[in-house]
Amino acid sequence: MHTVQSKDGTTIAYDKTGQGPALILVPAAFMDRQEYKGFIPELSDHFTVYNYDRRGRGDSGDTQPYSTQREVEDLAAVIETAGGEAYIYGQSSGAALTLLAASSGIGITKIAVFEPPFSTGKGERELPAGAPKHLMDLMAKDKWSDTMEYFLTKLVGIPAPAVAGMKSQPMWEGMRKFAHSLPYDAALTAGPAGDFLVPKAELAKIKIPTIAIDGGASWGWILETTKAVADAIDGAQYRTLPGQDHGVDPKVIAPVLIEFFGA
Fold first, then answer.
1. Cα 64–89–3 angle (5° rounding)?
2. What is the pLDDT of residues 24-56, one digit of tens each?
């Protein structure tokens, strides 16, 4: 494990593996760098892979107050330690962070995003206003189970009976370690206006090669959103991986990343 200090002094932990151009992996909700370990053997022959813990996760710090800009600064610190420029791959809310960072002009040369969880505003799911604050309020009362249930049902759109089934399994307690960071994921996706809409104005600022990827077996709303993200970025590619869902198989997506970043 290595560490780097973010602009506000927060310690950001990362692993460095492989050889070649720098590729940074940005985790989604309910993920730290351990969840990305399946990607390392698939990518490390082609890239120097920087697998980091976003703030509030794993071995990284969690300086308060939180802001999405601080998450961009964390990623910038990892880019700096990687030599000042890097490719970036982000999943779900990690994709939202990747897009925000790319629009800010830090040293990112190419990005690949998998299923950024914005909304197209077509009514495919009702996203509650003020969700990041509500999640923060729940966690302030240590209602970690309610926090996770709210996030999964109201923001992800998983049916309540399915979440109730998850709560009865040992995995629920294991997911507890991520509950306090869920407001961060909500804030990244909600955007400054809090409306969760695809941030077209910010995406239009991205002038680097981009590919937006989704899985053919994923939710319909996220397929529409991923396509809308690609459409909002000049020259972006769009790719669907047949049979894949939101938990994409590293062995399936790795060849796409190798081809795109290696082109």
1. 45
2. 999 999 999 999 999 999 999 999 999 999 999
